[in-house]
Design goal:
Number of helices: 26
Largest sheet: 3 strands, mixed
Number of domains: 3
Shape: elongated
Radius of gyration: 29 Å
Distance between the termini: 27 Å
Number of strands: 5
Strand order of the largest sheet: 3-4-5
CATH architecture of the largest domain: Orthogonal Bundle
CATH topology of the largest domain: Clc chloride channel
Helix content: 55-70%
Amino acid sequence: MPFLKSYELLISWFQSKLSNKQFLILSSMFVGLTAGLAAVLLKTLVHYIHLAITHDYHVQYQYYLYLVFPLIGILLTVFYVQKYRHGKLGRGTANILYAIAKKSSFMPKDQMYSHIITSTLTVGFGGSAGLESPIVTTGSAIGANYSKTYHIHYKDRTLLLACGAAAGIAAAFNAPIAGVLFALEVLLVDVGISAFIPLLIAAAVGALSSKIILREGILFSFHLQQAFNYHNVPYYVLVGVLAGFISLYYARISIKIETFFKPKKQKVYLKALIGGSILALLVFLFPPLLGEGYESVKTIANLEPEKLLENGLFSGVGNNGWFILFFVGCAMLLKVVATSITIGSGGNGGNFAPSLFMGAYLGFFFSRLITMLNITVLPESNFTIVAMAGILSGVFYAPLTAIFLIAEITGGYELMIPLMIVSATSFAVVKYFEPYSMDTKRLAAKGHIFTHNKDKNILSSLKMEKIVETDFQKVSPEATLGQFVDVIAHSKRNIFPVLNESDQLVGIILLDNVREIMFKTELYNSTLVKELMKTPPALVNLNDEMYAVMKKFDETGAWNLPVVENDKYIGFVSKSSIFTNYRKMLIKSTIS
């Protein structure tokens, strides 16, 4: 396209005229603008599709008819992914973290637009998920592919990837500070002060894009109604503890439902039909579960919970305070179920909006219950707002992002103290039980994800099969010392694996351990190798991650360890070889 060619030529000209730092600043602006516009496009498309499917056409039973739309959205998403993406999409923040840790911050080009298409279909048609994760993935892919086009090295490429994510969050909520903090807490962490300038510029440009283009009704925002009262601090601590446990519930339910749908991996349309049908039933019973759910959050934040029951199955009991409270509590607990089914059955979306939804419902439920039990009168609007930060902090392990996001979307910092209390308490609770967030837990278990530490990032990129050494002379345990000395004479190594007839490692012999007797010819026929061998200090499996291997080296003090696969000897791995390959990867990541 002529426009794109002109755009690339313009940026290439800037790159030739500016220093690296100057070009990085300019690049952060371009990435922020593109990611911001992508977020604006996605939010706008979903908003108008959602308006269309929920519009009152004055048709009898219309409420029942539009419940099929979430199923349609999931089926369309699955069709697109199977037809145009070969069944692969790469969902969630973990997808980005994996790209940083294992792929040198490179992301596929199709992720610059595929998440916009799929999440529009899923969430626009009523899938119970959020748009922020697709927005973050899209922004990150824009930053990564921009860097690839202009041959920007690893460190700055990772920074521009994070700039895209920051701009996406900033545009989605008109919250630039939260966008920067999200990039720092979730994606980067191990960065210097110099990284703040590009992130700030990208987030500011992204937020400005949505501020100019999006109208008020599309953005998620509301205003405080009640002032902070320090007498309520104990209740804020308690709601923070509850938010921590609800966050744990969120993570574990998500994993269980994902596990339920995983065996149906090849039956994608059957999986979509099952998930879409269950989702339709949930939405039929609890209409606030439809879509992102931000409108219902505004409803309870404005202390109008009875509106949640309008035009639904329970519209006739909207004046019963205890039933309303029960309805709110059930909707809160079922939101994660609806979201996990939406994503697990093939839809595309994220956990950001559902976290805010559950937090708002938790805060309202808690404060209304305390008031109805005549314990005290709590400011329900304030608790609705601050509990959102508690769940967001507990699900994403990002307390600063949670605090400033809620502060920005409410238009002030009046609730900064309770926001800090609730977010920090929730984060402390979840960290006590789970060291990793939901998005990174499975990757961390495999050693795939160490993005908070650049050394571990590079170390985890090394593959065992590429550095294992196989030129070691094997020896049988039944061989004599004389035969072993002959093996030594033809070897350049000082360590020898002892293998049985099935090629299983039964021991090792170090040259230093037999040096004193190897020239005593009188022992050549009477001494057997099995009398000289010893058990290796540790075994390395061919599929072990390099971080686990280095831990074994540190624990044993060894410089060489045998490698096995399915109990069969493969070779040896040396600490010096790992260090050599690490240095090569470090140089490559700096200049590539």
